[in-house]
Amino acid sequence: MVQPEELGSMFEPVGISEIQERLYRLILQHPGVALTSIAEVASLPRRHVQEAARSLEKMGLVSRPAGTRRGYSAAPPEVAVEALILRRQEELERCRLAAIELGRQSREVAQSLNPLEVVEVVTGREAVARRFEHMLRTAKHDVMVLTKPPFAVALDESESNERSLMERGVRARGITDPDALALPGFLTRVERLVAAGEEIRISPVPMKLAVVDHRVGLVPLRMDEPGPKGGLVLHPSPLLDGLIGLFEMVWERAVPVPQPVDGEGGTSRHLLSQVDERLLLLLGAGLKDAAIARQLGVGASTVLRRVRRMMGALSAQTRFQLGVQAALGGWITRED
Fold it and tell me: Is there a single domain that holds both residue 40 and residue 70?
């Protein structure tokens, strides 16, 4: 005999109400019993039980001999529920095909849009945040982001959103302005994301930008506020193509953040300690000694001493030469 707890709430996703579920359980346990008796046992109005029974009969969950008023018998759950699941899958597939057709129609409309309709204006901080979250949730292939302070989203929340992308197999690429590296703990956050699979590079960026799947972009109206009061949503157009080209151009020239090594005493590609590699990265990003010291958690004198040691090892006369010699000598590499 099937127990109620074995069925639980699994019927809800296939359109079975609570009353219908209770009735089906009782018929499973008491096949052939009159609906009047079931109504008494279930403490339900007889009219509700009769309506639920008719609905279950239409769904194929219960039946009774034709031309009689005998009680109902329940179909085996594994058979009846499977039929409901298949029916729901067919309905969902029709919805999916309808969405594809609507997308095709919308693209046709987009090709004939007035140029002013290619750009959608979103007003209000919450509206911009919702649109950005929706873009990330619907990303299927890749996400490209140009970012710089001030940030509209808390860093821990932003990190969670970025990890979710990579867990879904979405390629995430970000270019971060060097100003962000002056924020306490920001480099450590970047290294965690790189270790998780995100591709991050450091370079001055001219604007904030997010592009998802090369099909939609988002640009805040103001760059100097942590929470944008409005934003521009860019649909497929030469404008969006141009901003994607801007991202790729900055990406090619930006400094890659390498995969972090294990342990402070380890070496990067057997040549640099983790601290020295981070130091070179921050130098390449243009940070001053004081900002580098804050990121590394050391004193400014320690930064200067390490820089001089590496310059001596590579016979570099300037810090620029240090970066060039480190790259040419394989101390640091550029990942494509």
Answer: yes
